[in-house]
Amino acid sequence: MPLLEVENLTKTFGGVVANKDISLRVEEGETVGLIGPNGSGKTTFFNLLSGELKPDHGTVRFRGEDITGMPSHAVNGKGIARTYQILRPFSSMTVLENVMVGALPRMNMREAAEAARRFINLVGLDQRTFTLASALSTGQRKRLELARAMATKPKLLLLDEVTGGVDHKSIPGLIALVKKLHQEGVTLLIIEHSMKVVMQLATRIVAFHLGEKICDDFPERVATDRRVIQLYLGKAYAKNS
Amino acid sequence: MAEVSATPQRRSSAGRWIVYAILGVFVLVYPFMRFQVGPLQVDFTFPYARHLLILIFLYALTAQAWNILAGYCGQVSFGHVAYFGIGAYTSSMLLMNFHLTPWIGMLAGGLAAIALGLIVGLPTFRLTGHYFAIATLAIAETVQTIFMNWNAAGEAKGLWLPVMKDSLLNFQWKSKLPYYYVALALLCLVYLATYGMERSKLGFYFRAIRDDAVATSSLGVDILKYKLVALSMSAFFSALAGSFYAQYVLFIDPFSVLHLQHSVLVVLLATFGGVGTYWGPIVGTAILVPVSEFVRIRFGGTGGAEDLIVYGGLIVLMTLVEPAGIVGIYRQHIRPQLFARKEMVDVHAMAGEATEE
Fold first, then answer.
1. Is A49 part of any domain?
2. Residue A118 sits in which domain range?
3. Mind telling me how many Å the CA of A227 is from chain B's nearest CA?
4. Contact: A102, B215; criterion CB under 8 Å
5. pTM for this model (two decimals)
6. Which of A143, B58, B99, B281 could form a disulfide with B64 if both were Cys (CB 3.0 to 4.6 A apart)?
7. pLDDT tier at B312 (50, 70, 90 boundaries)?
8. Residue B304 domain-assigned?
9. For residue A85, is it within any domain?
10. Interface-testing mutation among A53, A72, A106, A175, with chain B (most B C-beta atoms within 10 A)
11. Which tens digits make up the pLDDT trace of B37-84?
């Protein structure tokens, strides 16, 4: 049984079809990369999976259970967590408190604090445990969001542009961290613009364009797919890859 | 393992506890204080001196109750007088019609306020920020209009509570002294509840909802449920204050316990002191209520406009100088080393960093 099974997922905003008949399958243990131009519907897809939006048609099955249209807190309870493209830290709370919010729905205060510290160590923010989230740099906030999402003990983690806005030097560290999270037993579905990052992490790549899935295959095949090159990667990529 | 704190990191110095102890003793003996030090004569045993503190306790109670919902949980209500009024009317009508002791009436009022809160909250909490505030305003006005036209509640004429024998059961005394300690006890109750909330899961969830409700929901927290919990706590204590008021003044009508002015006042008091902080409401009340009384006595008139002008001026001043209120001023300027909000970084860690992000 696949971990995630999406069938004909459709979402329209007024005249704009953000997601059109998207069907997708994610097996446990995979790292699936989701690529495509801005506005192709990737984040909308995430919002539909995580419960922030309700689809117009289609179904989402997680571990065999139909979770279509469930609110986001219930979806998280089932085992799906996500990070955001535009970061959402709890600014008035410390790093520790931020991560604890993720852990508290499942355990008591003391356990949550211990679990939170473990995840803070995992993402390398232990020196900042008592720092207010508002005082963190962008890269640190991204790590915070990862730790916080992981604290909810997800089986599937949706990462929305985790390397967006991060300087070149820090990207290898982030990639290594994502791989570490994967080793913790989390299946990953990641939206990424950097092909360099996607090729290093993904076992499979799905390409979106104008709300539709145009490719779903092994990374090497997607990178050389004619349509993907034409609509997203550009001819220069084909020449250099 | 280092201690986990649910609140912004601050180390309590011994000095703080000494200050608390002194204030605590002062407040306990205040109604009996009558002495002379040289030419200075101090007498707090007469009714007005006690009345002033009773007002402060009462308003601090309502301000902190509002603070739980608006300051900690981020849901700004401009219609909190509805809960105050429901409390006042419930206990009074139960007393007058069923001779029920106002203590039970007070609890009933609290429950009625929670019920109103749930009715209000369920549809309005789906609205974002400003729309929620407007909705609460509209609902409070509706509640006032209902009571103005409700025969059994005395309509616009209001209710004259029966004068009864001095007793604890009757919740009525000729002297202000028992009222003083009851008001103090109620204030301590709401502060105790807030203290417990701060350190529990509720405190975490409330603050997270305030900072980012969408992210909070994505972490598995039912934000509607917790907003309703915050509203229930807030409504309950507001209603207790309303019942107290009814028993203290022995007259209530829609213009004294269901008026918009009370809603605005509650917001001003908590905001001036420091919204979202623990001591903010009582600090704001302890400053603004005496100021308002002074203005009313000094400039005469009905007292309705002058003190609001002064309030308005103070609020504008506070908003320009320090939006975080008096407590904000304390944290930023008087004791910044304890509250360095932007500088809570381990300096050694910074020095040891190379390429760490």
1. no
2. 80-153
3. 35
4. no
5. 0.90
6. B281
7. confident
8. no
9. yes
10. A72
11. 888 888 888 899 999 999 999 999 999 999 999 999 999 999 999 999
A216 backbone dihedrals φ, ψ, rounded to 5°: -155, 95
| Separation in Å, CA of B223 to nearest CA in chain A | 8
Q: Domain residues for B108?
A: 25-259
User: What's the structural domain count of chain B?
Assistant: 1
**CA B9 to chain CA centroid, nearest Å:** 24
A6 within domain boundaries: no
Rg (CA), chain A: 18
Closest approach of A223 to chain B, Cα-based (Å): 30
Say which of A82, A100, A169 has its CB closest to residue B218: A82
The answer to whether ipTM exceeds 0.85 is yes
User: How many domains does the structure of chain A reveal?
Assistant: 1
Quickly tell me which residue has 């306990």 as its tokens. Answer: B28
Residue holding tokens 């050694």?
B348
In a domain, A232, yes or no: no
Structure-block tokens of residue B141: 């006005």
The verdict on residue B7 lying in a domain is no
Considering only CB atoms, A73 lies closest to which of B1, B201, B217, namely B217
Rounded CA gap, A107 and A17, in Å?
41
